[in-house]
Design goal:
GMP Synthetase, Chain A, domain 3, alpha/beta, seven-stranded mixed beta sheet, binds magnesium ion, 20 helices, single chain, 30 strands, five-stranded parallel beta sheet, binds adenosine-5'-triphosphate
Length: 635
């Protein structure tokens, strides 16, 4: 039995779900009308499976909806409260953004960028990053933002794949007090790429750089640019951006998103989930290099004319109090982060957050991975002081915006720690078996989405075939996200991890999240990851990895306690063959555990593509610890 938390914001609008259930197409049609369109659509949905086009015939512009629409009433309202890693700060009002974006749009035009051209953006978390994105959107150029922590090889592949005409970067970026030389990375990445015509370089760190004939300095171009540039009237399905997935499961895929449907999805989910009000201060910790940053740092908050905090650096720099310090400084009311970050903060104990004034918070959210109930409760008590609902939002780069979440903006439903609760209105999500039949309550199966939704990807860039095979071949005309899940007796959805990672032991199937949550619920454990490796007798055996909380060291007793806990809470069947205690787990740069790698290491296999890894050292450390143990076990 899971615990239930009766907490909400008192908003209840059952009409929304009723309408959505009766006809999802006309429901989304109504939602889309909340945006500003240059001309209306003639067809709400053109569904030619598996390709969906939303609001066909409608003309719209993302930058217009993010900026122009607010100039009459909110021009002096702060849009971005920017906090630099080194304590610098900047405030950009809606008017400031409006001016900068128009100027930069003119800069792009002056370099020959036209509607439909791709522009790669490789910038740190500075306001010029959203400015560059919105400027692209303004003139119809498709942006492709690459996380500024990536190496030359990863960025090279992405520039090549998207055939970007212009690349935007900075001299350097700050990361944990050090300067990362971004311009040098770009110089290496674009070698031999004649199709890259221009590189625009923002001065951020003022480290020495060598300019080539393709290079232009951001401020020189901006000095000469005219401050007005009308937004292009674009087709609803005009490609707004390409974004490569985080690569947890393998090679990143170039997800292509459109405009009208995507913006509609964001506009709706932002108010349903975050209950956004004019007075709120929103803070999403995601890097804009990931989809969460695209959707809920750049587009959704600006569509709503919200005020948000944008932070440049690492969450634990210069120390583990940085996040709480930012929340206090900016009087943040809504905080959206990842389970990985929360597990890290939790590892440092309660004293740090307890020494800050977090009383302005009214709503908390998470995204990116299943949140362990233990971590949820810590978030609820220590950060939210038992007065903030927590929304656990499930979605993917491909889905554009949230698809599963509790929605305190429109309904109060009791929360269960670790459950994403329900699908958003207008989306039909089910848990099915191999044959596509709905499984009984509390039975595990595959998550599927049975109808198209406005934020869904248009396709994979230049690869319709892969788009069909990856998402639409397991079930006919249903989208297959590749996640394992169950619905409980109350119809709450529980995400149990990736379907590919499911542990199959002696005929039983166990989701990685179930077992990891159980291990993390031991008082001494901060983080855990599990994977299955082949076994001649049992078919598969489970291997577990655990990171202990600060100040705790491994011992035999601890291992016994954890194993006992697993036996009691899940059953003897789930007992791992081995628990490895490590100080780091291999994670993607967006903070997700790469079980694929753990598995390869434990199986002694070659490690494949690791371009999206956060920290190469974590892999060698895990490898080392596996080898040490094997040696001591004489295997
Ligand atoms: P790739 O597709 O290249 O392997 P990725 O799937 O890690 O990369 P994202 O699109 O950033 O890239 O991640 C989406 C995935 O993250 C989901 O499919 C799901 O497995 C997981 N996820 C996201 N939010 C949640 C959540 N709230 N609860 C459980 N899992 C989540
Ligand atoms: Mg994925």
């Amino acid at each position: 039995m899971s615990e239930i938390f009766e907490i909400g914001l008192g908003n209840n609008n059952p009409e929304i779900r009723k309408k959505a259930d009766s006809d999802f197409v006309s429901f989304w049609d109504e939602q889309a009308k909340q945006l500003s369109w240059f001309s209306p659509w003639t067809k709400t949905l053109d569904w030619n499976p598996p390709f969906a086009r939303w609001f066909v015939g409608g003309k719209i512009n993302a930058s217009y909806n993010a900026l122009d629409v607010h100039q009459a009433s909110k021009s002096q309202k702060p849009a971005i409260l920017w906090e630099g890693e080194n304590d610098e700060s900047r405030v950009l009002t809606y008017e400031d953004l409006f001016v900068q974006v128009q100027k930069f749009a003119n800069v792009l035009k002056s370099l020959g960028v036209k509607s439909g051209d791709r522009v790669t953006i490789y910038l740190p978390m500075v306001p010029e990053l959203p400015i560059a994105m919105l400027a692209c959107a303004r003139i119809g150029a498709t942006h492709t933002v690459v996380f500024s922590g990536f190496s030359a090889t990863s960025i090279k592949d992405r520039i090549d794949d998207s055939k970007s005409k212009v690349v935007i970067t900075a001299d350097g970026g700050y990361r944990r007090g050090k300067v990362v030389k971004l311009k040098e990375v770009i110089d290496e990445a674009i070698q031999g790429f004649d199709f890259v015509e221009h590189v625009i370089v923002l001065e951020r760190t003022k480290n020495e750089i060598t300019l080539t004939s393709k290079d232009h300095l951001w401020h020189n171009l901006m000095d000469e640019a005219s401050p007005s540039c009308d937004a292009e009237k674009l087709n609803s399905e005009h490609p707004l951006y390409i974004l490569y997935t985080s690569g947890t499961t393998g090679k990143p895929k170039g997800v292509l998103h459109g405009t009208g449907g995507y913006l509609t999805h964001l506009h709706s989910t932002y108010k349903w989930a975050f209950d956004i009000k004019d007075s709120d201060v929103f803070f999403c910790t995601a890097d804009i290099g990931w989809v969460t940053g695209h959707s809920y740092v750049v587009y959704a908050p600006l569509l709503h004319g919200a005020t948000e905090v944008m932070y440049e650096g690492a969450p634990d720099f210069p120390d583990a109090s940085r996040m709480w310090d930012i929340l206090q400084k900016y009087k943040v009311t809504i905080f959206y982060t990842t389970p990985t970050a929360l597990r890290m903060f939790m590892k440092f104990g309660d004293d740090i957050p307890n020494s800050f004034d977090l009383s302005t918070l009214r709503l908390l959210g998470t995204v990116g991975e299943p949140i362990n109930p233990e971590v949820w409760k810590w978030y609820y008590k220590t950060i939210g002081k038992e007065k903030c609902p927590i929304i656990d939002t499930w979605w993917q780069t491909e889905t554009g915006g949230m698809l599963i979440s509790s929605l305190p903006g429109i309904e109060t439903i009791p929360l269960k720690p670790g459950s994403g609760t329900r699908a958003i209105p207008g989306v039909n999500i089910a848990v099915v078996d191999e044959n596509g039949t709905d499984v009984a309550p509390n039975t595990k199966g595959y998550l599927v989405i049975k109808n198209p939704w406005p934020g869904m990807l248009l396709t994979l860039w230049n690869d319709d075939e892969k788009y069909k095979t990856v998402y639409w071949s397991k079930y006919e005309n249903w989208y297959y996200p590749g996640d394992y899940a169950l619905k409980d007796d109350d119809d709450y959805l529980w995400l149990l991890g990736r379907a590919d990672d499911v542990l199959k032991v002696a005929g039983h199937r166990i989701g990685t999240a179930e077992l990891e949550s159980c291990i993390v619920s031991h008082n001494s454990v901060a983080e855990s990851a599990v994977c299955g490796i082949p076994d001649e007798v049992k078919g598969e055996v489970i291997i577990a990895f655990a990171v202990l909380k600060q100040g705790i060291s491994k011992n035999d007793e601890l291992e016994k306690e954890i194993l006992l806990k697993i036996r009691n809470d899940i059953g003897p069947i789930a007992t791992p063959k081995q628990i490895y205690f490590v100080s780091k787990l291999p994670k993607t740069r967006s903070g997700k555990i790469m079980r694929r790698l753990l598995k390869a290491i434990a199986k002694n296999e070659k490690i494949g593509d690791v371009s999206t890894l956060e920290d190469g050292a974590a892999v060698s450390e895990v490898q080392q610890s596996v080898e040490d143990l094997k040696r001591s076990m004489n295997v």
